[in-house]
User: Fold these one by one.
Assistant:
Number 1:
Amino acid sequence: MAESILHEPLRDRGPGNEKTPGLWRWLWTVPAAQSEQPALMRSGWRQYVIAVGAFALTSLLNWWLQPGIGEHAAALVYLLSVVLLALMVGRGPILLGTALTALGWSFLFAPPAYSFHIAGFYDKMMFATYFLVALIISQLTARLRAERLAEQQREKHATALYLLTRELASATDLADTLGKIVRQVGQTFSAEVALWLPDAAKPGELVAYAASTWHPSEPDQKLAVRAFAASEPTGPSKSGASALEGLYWSLSTGGSPAGVLGLRLQPGLKLSGQQMELADHFARQIAIALDRQRLRDAEVNSKLLSESERLGRTLLNSVSHELRTPLSAITSAVSSLRTLGPLSPAQSNLTREIESASARLNRVVQGLLSAARLQSGQIRPNLDWCDVAELVYATLRNLGKMLDGHPVERRLAAGLPLVKADSVLLEQALGNLLANAAVHTRAGTPIEIGARLEGKEVVLEVADRGRGLPPEQVARIFDLFQRTPTAKPGGMGLGLAIVKGFVETQGGQVRAANRPDGGALFEIRLPAGETPLAPDESP
């Protein structure tokens, strides 16, 4: 595990940022978990040992120097030792060192020696002034030291956040982003890292990132799921289970979480308040990066899909137009053969087959062209007042031989109002429904076509007595290229999709259902309009 940029300077460096080996390093080192707490809270017993040792060494030095400098200069040496001590320890040890030096001076050097009684007024004032000055200077020095440490910690946190942001900004794809998250978070917090992402196939569930450096146990994974659902940090302290190992952050920017980040710290390490705040910042930056990557992937997929659709429409349009020319030539050639003279029975059968196949292929090409126009949004309906009864009769007339062998039952209500629609598009939609019923039912099976007024809508119905629609496919029956398993070979699944497109462009609706007594039922619903007045009937 790489060394943490948060912990390394506090464990390995002294007040002057120099390496501190041996016993002095052991006495000096402040536990990393205490380094960001207030000074009174992080004064460990080793710092009190330092305070007592400094007093003892300074007393020996004063005892050696006292014959030459006097008792008053010894107080200044004590004061210097307290200032130096404030550069290394917290407020508790400083208070202890100040009290020890004041009492030591009064006991060892202030007359009478080896007694806490101070005889002279000047010496009493010296003792009181020394204690106050030593206390104030030591506390100010300790405050400056604490501020310096806090500034260093803030700088480390800002550097760690900058390094994470820089790494995430340079990621090229999701795999690269996840790898950099695991590496950078692990280096920063000296921890093992686990990542979970939402399962696209199962909403609300998580999938573990395989390249994580930590693979939690099942109880810890439950905490990760809880953090994902609650969108807030969680861990053993909040769950009441001390045996659990990790801390977890939901990677959320305010919306749906982009995943969960888990940390397992090294034994003996804990995150302080500032480090928890830094971890929260890390979680937010990671969530932003994952959301940005998700949007980038969605944009790429959208571009690919748009380009694929555009290519498909272009190819469909080109093929359809190329097929219309030979179809026209075939139809003209058959008509010419009939005008040349009487044909033999075999020739007549062949010409009928050619005409039937040409008509069928022409319908396929027309369907492809209509689908291409719908996909490209090129259809602009020419709305005008239409008589529904006339529209039904015109559709039946144009289908001609397509409905041979299927008796058509008309059920048109009397007094139907006019509808404002594109008669060409509506006729083609109704024709597709009738042709679909003829193709998917046996010869001799009746086809019903009806029209009625229902509320403010005119409803056109086409029903048959065939096998009906598979229940699982009713909702998708109008999708492009959708065909039922029992459909006859030769179709392309365009007819019903064209019906839906043509009807909806005119402000109508279309639906499909199975009849209770067998067969399929298709409905076209159009808004009923008020019958316009003729020019000579205007008021």
Note: Residues 303-376 form a domain with the Helix Hairpins fold (CATH 1.10.287.130).
Number 2:
Amino acid sequence: MPRCAAFCPDSLARRWVGVAGVAACLAFGVVSERIAFGWDRPGAWVPDLAVGLAFLAGGCWAWPAQRGTGVLLVLTALAWYLGNVHAVALYWHRGPLVHLLLTFPTWRPRSRLAGCGVVVGYLAAATSLWHSEIATVALSLALTAVLLRQRLTVAGRARHHRTAALCVGAALAGSLVLGAAARLVAGTVAVDPALWLYDGVLCGGAVGLVVATRRSPASVVTDLVVDLGEANGHTVRDALAAALGDPTLQIAYWQPGTGSYVDHTGVPVAVDGADERFAHIVGRDGEPFAVLVHDPAVLADPSLAAAVAAAARLSAANVALHAELRVRAGQIAASRRRLLVAADDERRRLEERLHDGPQRRLAGIHAALGAGVVPDGYGHVRRALSQIAYTMGEVDALARGLHPRELAGGLSVALRALADRAALPVRLRVPDTAFPAPIESAVYFLCAEGLANVAKHARAAGASIDVVRDDTHLTVIVADGGVGGADLSGGGGLRGLADRVEAIGGTLTLESAAGAGTVLTATIPLVWSD
């Protein structure tokens, strides 16, 4: 059975052969270092040995996932150590190395250009071309150009691998060009630094290529699925496009009601394939669920297609959840506005009842009692008249607190009356413009509370009220030059004002540094909806 294949004698024999081969290559590398440098020059043989070990270990690590890459890495290590034994083999390692870069992550060239590059790489390694500094520069630039062209002409999963090969190849070419230039300018002084740079780039390149074989786009998509809870639909599309190497990728979701696909913003997406792109249908429970419109080469790998389908399903669920949350938030905001309007209507009715009932009766009693001259012996009548007048003032203040009657004449009239009653001078600037009733009520109570706080706590000589409107917002600023120190987080009247302003979609900010006065600013949208 397949599950037992790993334990068959042939499989075990191949594994032991592989282990023995790697051990033999490592032993040969150690011997070659002894022959080339001797043990008394660790600055030469340690980095040289490390390069071969990096390619040898990389080949063993890459073997299960990409055997072509594993073989070429091991061949590069073997050729590297051969260069220590005989000068003829000094540049042989660049043959399998160029082969590796041009065909990564397999060993077969996928284009005529790549095939020609592999042939040229082996010929240059076998001849004396790399001995020439000019030829080294030319070959390095040509390799980089071929790798760049390969990167620009592929899509999908291959783009991930071509990017890794391009990065390693460009670093390798850069080290070779810099080394050649340094040797041309400085002579033998630059040999050791150039060699150390080359050794470091080779070690890093081996590691980078191995990581690229183990880190496929499918794993990137899997990580994307795990992290999807923190993303919205547009972020998922961008992340998938980057992971798959297709910037034109689109994700659309099935709408049963309309029988069409739409993106995360609700815009319809055509999937009839009028151009050269491909529509990959994602289903759930036997029904259409989503579609990915992409380059045909992107999802050629079945495992990658499955991972992307999972991401698309979770993305759709995530988008639906965000849409539901937005609807719920809108409903809550609308409910707050309706409660505010209802409360203001009730306050207005109470004010009218006070005005038409108790206030009017008290005024009638006061007029009747005070119609004539009260004789000196009727001091109790004078006291009753005084108490009635005081009570009328309290009822009038209570009525204004419930709902100011002046608002019937508009916001400007109400604020001018408020400024006239204030206990300190108030500079007022307000447009003679009508606004929706909830906005006018919020602005009035904001200014009333602001002036009350100035009178109680600010110890200021005066205050100012500025009401400014533009095309979309109304801005209200209540300022004083007092002692400052006010705080919205402390609760009380200011916190209630913030709740009222937020209920109609606005924001309330407070600037009140100690000794610098207080500035209370409300910004309210002029678009009102129930």
Note: The CA atoms of residues 318 and 442 lie 37 Å apart.
